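In the current project phase, the collection of sequences with tokenised folds has grown. A representative record is quoted in full directly below:
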Amino acid sequence: MALVETQTEGQIFIIRLNRPERMNAMGQELLGELAQAFNYFQSDSNLEVAVLTGTGRAFCAGEDMKESLERGIPGSGPKDEDPFMSGTLEKPVIAAINGFAMGGGFMMVERTDLRVAVKGAIFEISEAKRWLLGGYNHGHFAGLPHPIATEMALGFRFTAERLYEVGFLNRITEPENLIDTACEMGRHLLTLPPASRVNTVYMMRQMRPSIPADLNELADALHNHGDKNDLMESRAAFSEKRQPKYNGWLKPEDRYRMPTIESVKAQSKNK
């Protein structure tokens, strides 16, 4: 059984994650097939718009915790070259979010140009639960007010209705209308002059908010500010359905020795 299924509707290419028993978690095999699908979409001159969706009750649950535990390394592991995931894909992608979009699944939605979700879909940025720094950048990318961005970074869950209200989603719809709604948006794009469509998508992507370099450097330091054994403990506890036993820091006093932008810059100069 293919973990990623594809379907062509004229110039619209529907890509469907098809691992429902694992809530379409981002295992290595699924990511490989997803890369193949997007490479095919990019190279086929007859295809102009992609619709990305999932099978079952989840769009994508994010990292495959079972695979991470088997590897002994957190994260989704090495990925095949994927123009969508790497940000080099030039053609527009519409997300058709059929259910849970968690962690890396949320980040896939974030990469799309237009977004349709079923009513009641659940979204979560899970980095605060799985790493040593929460998803500080996602609310900023979405242009959300700071308190909502903070809520997102700390791993709170959001409904589709709430994200529609704050402007993260373009449409919400009933499940039976999801793909038709996404394809309708795709067909609208195809009515535009080709150069206008390509140029406008390119321009809007250039206008996306970005994080200043010094804050990204601070984030890199904060990703190492704590006991990294907690990364695998969070995944083991999730897999074993128990409360995690975190250490926090190797030395208790490290809690109060926060890296700063200035200290990070000084370390960079000394390298």
